[in-house]
Amino acid sequence: MAIPTEKQPDTGIRQAVSHPLDPLTAEEIVEAANILKSQRRLGSRVRFETIVLREPGKPDVLSFQPGNSIRRDAFLVVLDNEEEATYEAVVSLNEGRVTDWNKVPGVQPRIMFDEFFECETLVRANPDFRAALAKRGISDPDLVMVDPWSAGYYGFADEEGRRLALTRNFLRSSPTDNGYARPIEGLSALVDLNKMEVMRIDDYGVVPLPPNPGNYAAEFVGEFRQDLKPLEITQPEGPSFTVDGHSVAWQKWHLRIGFTPREGLVLYNVGYEDQGRVRPILYRAALSDMVVPYGDPSKDHYRKNAFDAGEYGIGSLTNSLTLGCDCLGEIHYFDADLNTGRGGSFTIPNAVCMHEEDYGILWKHTDWRTGQVEVRRSRRLVISSIATVGNYEYGFFWYFYQDGTIQLEIKLTGIINTAGIAEGETPRHGTLVAPQLNAHVHQHFFNFRLDMSVDGEANTVLEVNTVAEPLGPDNPHGNAFYAEATPLKTEQEAQRVIDPMSGRYWLVSNPSVKNALGRPVGYKLMPGENILPFAHPGASIIQRAGFMTRHLWVTPYAPDELSATGPYPNQHPGGAGLPEYTRNDRKVENTDVVLWYTLGYHHVPRPEDWPISPVGYCGFSLKPVGFFDTNPVLDVPPSAHHNGACHA
Ligand code: NI
After folding, report:
1. In which domain, by residue range, is 201 found?
2. How many angstroms is it from 442 CA to the middle of ligand 1?
3. Fewest beta carbons less than 10 Å away: which of 32, 340, 626, 640?
4. For 475-534, how does the pLDDT look when each residue is reduced to its tens digit (9 = 90+)?
5. 376 and 329 share a domain?
6. 200 & 337 share domain
7. Ligand 1 center–CA 293 separation, angstroms
8. CATH code, domain with 72
9. pLDDT-based confidence at 183, cuts 50/70/90?
10. pLDDT, mean over the chain
11. How far is the CA of 414 from the centre of ligand 1 (A)?
12. Treating both helix axes as pointing N-terminal to C-terminal, what angle do 127-135 and 113-125 enclose, rounded to 10 degrees?
């Protein structure tokens, strides 16, 4: 299609923007949608899946100086429900025109929030669905929760090319009751979301509703433990960080905050001040996608999995956080401005929480001869957000420590997904968590895209394993072992899994910058608890989420390679994302590398996970290895103490 070229005057709204990586403002989101609407002929039933900043190229970002003019481009993904087609657009906000407009054949944008509600209303009103409810003794469809799940891809002819959701349904006993206590087993609706019509109702047979409620809300609990005394966090002089727009400085750390509807929290330009300058470590870090495969093979459960970023847009499902509840202490909040399905904007107030935490001791030694004690307290900067995806909550917590360590921790909580089971039966692929209530075994796989820049863009990744020296002249007593570093030179070589028994880690090194000891400076990726998938290599979910099969992937930087599952995982048959990016086995040595770390959290549910799961944790760390010339936290001052300072 031809693109109008007349230049329109800049509206001046970019005065609110001070850096090329600032997320689009609410005004810019609406302006981008309006420019597209007025310059392209869009159908009357159009949904805006994405309106985000199209990030400028790295050279433009890295050379940016305050006061420079800022180019603002918006990237949009549009779903035309009438035409059943997906379009990508780029809108120049400076020029007020559409600069790129392409139809993307054969893809489905993620399921949007509006579609959740429309789908629920549709299914509740469906006569066949109501008849199936009546068979189960359910008379009030308004108390039925209809959760639309992404349908995946199984090669069924009647599903080909259609935009789908497959529902799982639950019954509340009152409007605030926890409906997940009563799965309506054996019943699902397959919905065409473009036509917004029910394709069919599947009824695999009645299973009685579990007998017990499963409520956790304060109104139902009634009696609380009485022995908790107040615990106050006070910072009488305020926090130690400073914030300028989306830019943050804390201790020696410098970074920028971003946010997208798909990824949620994004960190940019993370660096640590040392030797009189800010030394870069990470150019960009964010969740790239995640998936939750379930292990039950039955007819109404084998399709149960969810790509919560790529299929649902976990950023757009982010909570507005509350002081004293989600976060404690001196908090700085960042709001998130995101697009609605109709091309408007909405704001999630307090989407990102930032605060400091005391983290126990940083280092300590007692000179046992003199009795002299030196101890320092550790403090960390916490930047976090929490999203609700259907029944589940995910908290994403980035920690910055004074010693140069960066840690990512995921907090998993919320309500486990449940299924009904006949009285007296014991589930094989799940755990009985309450009478006649089965919680299926499942896994949560996250992939984080870490665009590294350890003291510059040209980095090399090495795998470090500790090996036992064989017995022989060099090891006559059998005690010898050593750490061995092997460079990972190509994308295929760099597809790795963890090996805790060899103390395996991956070192991102800058071969052209040496520390005071003459060694290349580096940062290591330290895996935490991790696991591999149990699905068969030929299973649909392994094809569609190939990223799960390796914990480490390394690619050379490419601006359009942003997701481990590719741009459109919803209903994608498989092979996209990391398996596709790495097919040509590009070189990844001494170049601008991107690390992709896959993190698997294994969940065999416990009765204690019901009716709401206490937080489970998983994560990884990035830790300096010869990045500094010596311990970087000798200059942390001793704390004041009521008996004097914390040193003798
Ligand atoms: Ni779980």
Report:
1. 113-221
2. 6
3. 640
4. 999 999 999 999 999 999 999 999 999 999 999 999 999 999 999 999 999 999 999 999
5. yes
6. no
7. 10
8. 3.10.450.40
9. very high
10. 95
11. 9
12. 70
